[in-house]
Write a structure and sequence with these properties.
Blueprint (H helix, E strand, L loop, with lengths): L1 H22 L10 H6 L6 H12 L2 H4 L1 H8 L6 H27 L4 H9 L2 H33 L6 H51 L2 H11 L23 H14 L4 H8 L4 H10 L8 H13 L11 H9 L2 H34 L10 H22 L1 H8 L2 H5 L3 H9 L5 H20 L10 H19 L9 H4 L16 H7 L4
Length: 517
């Protein structure tokens, strides 16, 4: 009976999710061209941008991984709150710069920006392929996360294999048709449910199991004090075999991730969908408030130490849901499951959308037959990317899991080419490309040989330092790029004080990024 009730609640909301995503196109004809599909026609207001970017940051990790990290390690999980908050502060400056640059030149993503900055279309294709390698594991992780949630809240009635397929089908069902705008609409539903369910759990779980926060926190400090300070449960790493999540790791990871998140392709998609630069500035000020919600699954992971002790391996990621299934009636379990599932669907939709956009605009457009059909090509790539992630989830899940180890640290190696190049004209193509090759090679070598962190420092930051050193050395020692374009054409700047209308792309540039199908 419990399985039927929870699964029915889940099914109703999944149908509503697809319907809501498709309704996003109401009154917009056939959905327009690539710019309308991939960046919402650059017309999303502050509310939609807020819920969309909050949705990208609040994934299935927030329900599963955050609780699991809290259960296994404790304090180190706070790096998520730290880097996201710092990233929003950096985004206050970077977001409007990238928005203005893309709007002025009719661009729809970071691959476009790289190709335009260095005047080499093929470079955009190279970056698209590299970024896809780093992004594809996130699709698989969201499929897996939603599958686990559905299986657990159905009390085992729905198998993992069917749950994985539901995750893929629901997301593909609306993102192919409605693009970024559909994801923004679904984000509204997600945020309402996330705020309501986590707010309820924050009060009900401590009350149900510990008679309130006082007894719970007193027991936590007395019995699990190791979890409350860095490096958390497991010690400082090194030869002792501990977690390695000490102060140096925390600082270096927060620093690296806060820089990387502002040029992450999914974040940039949110930037470019904004109606104005001011909407992004307001968004950067309000988004940190959403991080308060992250404390709830972290805290519930610590509560699970006393309620369901002894969880090991991947089971620890279910710490929160074991409390939910044990303490709540079936209909409430279904609602929490829906909130967690939508926290997988929204970021997964944007990941798929971004991969499709990069390939449709920067890779397949190099083939003459696809040059005038960028949107339809991008939609096909969305289905292919999602299907590939689903197939690998079934057949070789460890392949993408291993790639996920370098996803964020690998994406960080694009920082000089994407961000530094847009503010420093002297950076040459040879320098940026050489640095990228070195950075990716170093991070792969360190991570896949088990040397992350390195002496307590995040391996991605070590690789980025090597990347920058090579990029600067090659740039300063070699010849300047022969680029006759003025600085205003290749560099980005914060459009503060400028009227939005003055940043409209030239008709020719707009039409290039907005092919009709």
């Amino acid at each position: 009976m419990n399985a039927a009730v929870a699964t029915s609640v889940f099914a109703v909301f999944m149908v509503a999710t697809v319907a809501l995503g498709l309704l996003a196109l109401r009154g917009r004809g056939k959905g327009g061209g690539l710019a309308e599909w991939s960046v919402g026609g650059r017309s999303l207001g502050p509310v939609f941008i807020w819920v969309l970017m909050a949705g990208e940051g609040y994934t299935s990790f927030s329900y599963l991984g955050a609780a699991g990290w809290g259960y296994n390690y404790g304090a180190p999980v706070l790096y998520v709150v730290a880097y996201m908050s710092c990233g929003y502060a950096i985004g206050y400056v970077v977001g409007p710069m990238l928005w203005a640059y893309a709007r002025r030149h009719g661009l729809v993503g970071i691959t476009d920006m790289v190709a335009h900055r260095f005047g080499r279309p093929w470079l955009g294709a190279v970056v698209a392929v590299l970024a896809t390698v780093f992004l594809l594991p996130y699709i698989q992780l969201q499929i897996t996360g939603m599958g686990v949630v559905l299986s657990v809240i159905s009390y085992g009635a729905v198998s993992l294999n069917w749950a994985y397929f539901v995750a893929f089908a629901v997301t593909t069902g609306f993102v192919v048709v409605s693009g970024l705008r559909g994801s923004a609409w679904v984000s509204v539903l997600k945020d309402v449910l996330v705020i309501a369910t986590l707010g309820f759990l924050a009060f009900s779980v401590p009350l149900h199991y510990f008679d309130g926060y006082g007894p719970f926190l007193d027991r936590l400090v007395t019995e699990k004090g190791e979890w409350l300070t860095l490096p958390g449960h497991g010690g400082g790493g090194g030869d002792g075999g501990g977690s390695g999540f000490g102060e140096l790791w925390f600082i270096s990871t927060t620093f690296l991730n806060s820089l990387t998140v502002v040029i992450f392709p999914t974040t940039v998609a949110g930037y470019l969908g904004a109606r104005s630069a001011d909407a992004l500035r307001r968004n950067a000020m309000y988004l940190p408030a959403y991080n308060v919600l992250l404390f709830v699954p972290m805290l519930l992971g610590l509560a699970a130490l006393f309620v369901v002790p002894g969880l090991t391996g991947t089971e620890s990621n279910l710490a929160l849901f074991k409390l939910v299934v044990d303490a709540l009636p079936a209909w409430a379990v279904g609602l929490v499951g829906v909130a967690a599932a939508l926290s997988s669907i929204v970021p997964m939709a944007v990941f798929m959308l971004v991969i499709g956009t990069m390939w449709g605009r920067s890779v397949l457009s190099l083939v003459p037959r696809f040059a005038e059909r960028q949107k339809s090509a991008a939609q096909v790539v969305v289905v292919v990317a999602g299907s590939l992630a689903l197939l690998l989830t079934y057949t070789a899940p460890n392949t993408l899991v291993r790639l996920s180890l370098i996803s964020y640290e690998g994406m960080a190696q694009l920082l000089p080419m994407v961000l530094l190049a847009l503010v420093w004209r002297r950076l040459t193509f040879r320098g940026a490309f050489s640095g990228l090759i070195v950075g990716v090679a170093v991070v792969c070598a360190l991570v896949f040989t088990g040397n992350d962190p390195v002496g307590g420092v995040n391996a991605g930051l070590v690789a980025l330092a090597a990347n920058l050193a090579v990029a600067l050395a090659v740039t300063l020692a070699g010849p300047r790029d022969a680029d006759p374009r003025p600085d205003a054409e290749v560099l980005a700047h914060d459009p503060v004080g400028e009227e939005d209308e003055s940043l409209d792309a030239a008709p020719a540039a707009r039409s290039a990024s907005d092919h009709r199908v």
